């Protein structure tokens, strides 16, 4: 049962008994001057209790983000609280768009959650992977035919420099079938099955790396944020996407890979954004510039998605500061002198 008090602050819910005297009609009328004074004092105390209770309720009801979310240049965007899953702000959250190399988040999610995964398993790099990258003009980890990287190394090669050759190797390795084409198709089916299991109802994958043969490799900001939140619960995935660079040992067939996500890269090659922990970039002719990002401060984490956004880094930093509050150095991250231009990368 609840009671309500109507005053200048509007209708406020009061617990039973809070300011109850102020809400009850008087059962008797004052008959003397002393009675009148006593009556007025009692009513004043009750009114004060109502005001205090209403004020307390008003304080509790103030939203965490009293200020409006910053304007965005992204065609589609989504920001959520990673702990609760609550939506913080969005822009065209359910409009389906191409996602470019952010597709590789799902590729990694499928591989890293496979039962009995052996990260030290060796995979032979095939010439077909390299020919594919050349034909498509795709981003590459510069793998070489005949090299035998581990599954762990291939995951870094895919998620840091956004290597489509590494993504191809993983799809060919973990898909089922007697031919490369069959194994690729089976792996993509695994991606779509996981999307369905996660409730990504507006997402369809037709590729393992974001290079869509049909133009139908699409998702929504809401779906992609849902995937990112799921992926970031995996400790291996967390480690992959927050790594700034990874050396495979300096052999002649494998090199050192740098993360294309400039939020996590230190200055001057990146933004060194305080609290940035991942997760993946993507760029394509149809998709534009995309970014899925994660930022943690004071025990709170936000995950954001920006699709088709020429200002993906400025927007991601503005959203993070709005949701989490600025950190030391966060405002300076965007400040560049004429000799230190704002960085960006192809993917």
TrEMBL record:
<dbReference type="GO" id="GO:0071555">
    <property type="term" value="P:cell wall organization"/>
</dbReference>
<dbReference type="GO" id="GO:0009252">
    <property type="term" value="P:peptidoglycan biosynthetic process"/>
</dbReference>
<dbReference type="GO" id="GO:0006508">
    <property type="term" value="P:proteolysis"/>
</dbReference>
<dbReference type="InterPro" id="IPR018044">
    <property type="entry name" value="Peptidase_S11"/>
</dbReference>
<dbReference type="Pfam" id="PF00768">
    <property type="entry name" value="Peptidase_S11"/>
</dbReference>
<comment type="similarity">
    <text>Belongs to the peptidase S11 family.</text>
</comment>
<keyword id="KW-0961">Cell wall biogenesis/degradation</keyword>
<keyword id="KW-0378">Hydrolase</keyword>
<keyword id="KW-0732">Signal</keyword>
<keyword id="KW-0573">Peptidoglycan synthesis</keyword>
<keyword id="KW-0133">Cell shape</keyword>
<protein>
    <submittedName>
        <fullName>D-alanyl-D-alanine carboxypeptidase</fullName>
        <ecNumber>3.4.16.4</ecNumber>
    </submittedName>
</protein>
<dbReference type="InterPro" id="IPR012338">
    <property type="entry name" value="Beta-lactam/transpept-like"/>
</dbReference>
<dbReference type="GO" id="GO:0008360">
    <property type="term" value="P:regulation of cell shape"/>
</dbReference>
<dbReference type="GO" id="GO:0009002">
    <property type="term" value="F:serine-type D-Ala-D-Ala carboxypeptidase activity"/>
</dbReference>
<dbReference type="InterPro" id="IPR001967">
    <property type="entry name" value="Peptidase_S11_N"/>
</dbReference>
<keyword id="KW-0645">Protease</keyword>
<keyword id="KW-0121">Carboxypeptidase</keyword>
